[in-house]
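Bench notes, afternoon.
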Amino acid sequence: MSDDAEIIAGRNSVLEALKAGRSLNKVLVAKGERQGSIRDIIAQARELGLVIQEVEIAKLDQLSAGVRHQGVVALAAPVAYVEIDEILTAAYGKNEPPFLVLLDELADPHNVGAILRTADATGVHGVLIPKRRSCPLTQTVAKTSAGAVEHVPVARIGNVSQTLKALKKQGLWVVGADMDGTKDYYEADLTGPVVIVVGSEGEGMGRLTKEACDFVVRIPMRGKMTSLNASVACSLLLYEVLRQRELKAK
């Protein structure tokens, strides 16, 4: 777990953050703690669809660094998350076919930051990050993105395959990147509304995610290595989308 998010410790502070609509990555509650306002905190966090995790008191002591935590700590994102609808509305507002990236279980904050930087450079309208088993926005992500985190909208999503099905209903094509893809990435038509899906560093895309793709493309490998770093692979695909769109515009 990345603990370099901003730490909000104590019941009142966490309640205020929830009420104010702060973008929180996670709420950590001491094991067995269910008294008084902790119940309100858990109920509000559940209502907002936030990840709630029970941890040992020692973990909260370590995170809060001397601040009285009263059995609860929240990890806040460095910037606010947005809704997918806002991303799509902004794309259509620019008269551009939506161009989204979905990171499926990508755990390394340096990869996420590097992808955000490329996303900004290639005109991506928004990046989608699952709430579970994926690296959220943290200070390390923000730092690695070299400021791009301020410019590229990021939405947190629940179930990946359900999200992809919903986007397909709205006319987006879902293109996954994987070594066993059916065609090379530069042979696919990427000029329309598209979601590029990039899998985790070691495992690639999950089975259900892969099944939700309209097609899966591969990056040709001519050397001894069988795969590229996730952020490098993603960069190639994003620049290919940009290249095809620029050519079409001409």
